[in-house]
Amino acid sequence: MRKFLQFVLNRVFITALIVLLQVAFFLLEIFQWANHYVEIALVLRILSILIVLYLVWKPNNPAVKLAWIVPILIFPLFGGILYLAFGHVIISRKLRDNIKLTDEFLRDDMPDNEDILRKLAAKDLAAANQSAYLHKFSGLPIWENTKTVYYPDGLPYWRQLLIDLRSAEKFIFLEYFILGEGAMWNEILMILEEKVKQGVEVRLIYDDVGSVFKLPKGYDQYIEQKGIQCVAFNKLVPIMAIILNNRDHRKIVVIDGKIGYTGGINLSDEYINYETVYGHWKDAGIRIEGDAVWNFTAMFLQIWNISRGKTENFEQYRHFFTEPVEGRGYVQPYGDTPFDEETVGENLYLNMIGYAREYFYAFTPYLVIDNEMCTALKLAAKRGVDVRIVTPGTPDKKMIYWLTQSNYQNLIEAGVKIYQYTPGFIHSKCVLCDDEIAAVGTINFDYRSFYHHFECGIFLYHADAVMELKQDMKATFLVSEEITIDWCRKKFMKMNVIGPLLKLFSPLL
Prior knowledge:
Blueprint: H1 2-9, H2 11-32, H3 37-57, H4 62-74, H5 79-86, H6 93-108, H7 114-123, H8 125-138, E1 146-151, H9 154-166, E2 171-176, H10 183-197, E3 201-207, H11 219-224, E4 229-233, E5 252-255, E6 259-263, E7 280-282, E8 285-290, H12 293-308, E9 330-336, H13 344-355, E10 359-363, H14 371-382, E11 386-392, H15 398-405, H16 408-413, E12 417-421, E13 424-426, E14 430-433, E15 437-441, H17 447-452, E16 455-461, H18 464-478, E17 480-482, H19 485-489, H20 492-503
Parallel strand pairs: 2-3, 3-4, 7-13, 10-11, 11-12
Antiparallel strand pairs: 1-8, 2-5, 5-6, 6-8, 9-16, 10-14, 12-17, 14-15, 15-16
């Protein structure tokens, strides 16, 4: 009975019920106008045709276009309505103005760090060009004087985070896709409450859809009552124009402008294996200390200002280090937004695949890739690069798992090595090539991360975390199952029937 009540009273269930009632009401209205069915049907068909023409004209990935054009043409009466309700991103003028203001700051007022870029170019021109690309399209520069530590699992990440939170003196910023009540979050919340009483400014952003199964309704107001400033990003509102795509999938912590965190780890108990629904949950996080933290501070404040409609001065939260931080290499935290035409996260991965001379390794929970990514991976393997990808052995979402597996045979036949993480579910989002370059962050190999979500990561060149990541990858290969062609052929239905059918709708999953 308790589980039934939790399901019935869940916000997702209530929202879905309201949306269905609205659709039913919409259909009832049409039936009441049955005498004008021909005219109504004509209008709806014209709407669908116009939307198909709009999608063809729109400068977007062909796979994304096809995923909407097919259902619209199959269901011409309601396909157009479906797209308007769930596919078309409508940005309000206020939100658009807020985005413009914050973007102008990032692009005009952030330092260029041209001297650092020239030093990098003298060592490796390709890496410097990649950094310049990230600066141009995310507005965030590259830094030296930054220490990096890579965490191969959620538990050590959490323990170090607790230590750093307790050390905060001025401010704490937290931004997470998923926030869940439990041991992990409750201990963090207890520290945050203590810090507020000490006069530390604490701000929290969590994604409303990402946390919808984890938190009660009005949780942001509950947090505000504790003296913690809080934003539930892009709140779930049950109306026909509901927009679920553009989520804040980022994970960012900033402490006093000195210490920063990112990675795949959210603040919920499964991420530290206090809950084990999918076997061992393997994730990755990275801690930085030094000048590069400023990028994360600016990224957090960008989303905060967009959400609150503010234009506060970012500089008041910048920390200037008086002594050098003991850290090797070059570090560049970067962000990606769905509100431009540049797929920064995917393009970084593509560039790294093209850069690789000896090997390219990747961790990803989902392998839902477009033709460009698939071709790049295959070409790298064909030219002799050791390409390895680790995906989960235990799925968290069945359809996405089948879609992930449907890509195996095509890649393996080209020479790409695919591994499934045998102990359970791997949620890490990491790429590495040639003992030189790595990226650790929140960006999956799927359409949602590449096209729909706010994302972030860290581009690393010869930093300490690069080789720490390599050691984790080598250890992970040893406990993972390498997938073979014979393995794929034994799963004929998934590989040749269900998978190709799901691929048609993959950008919508």
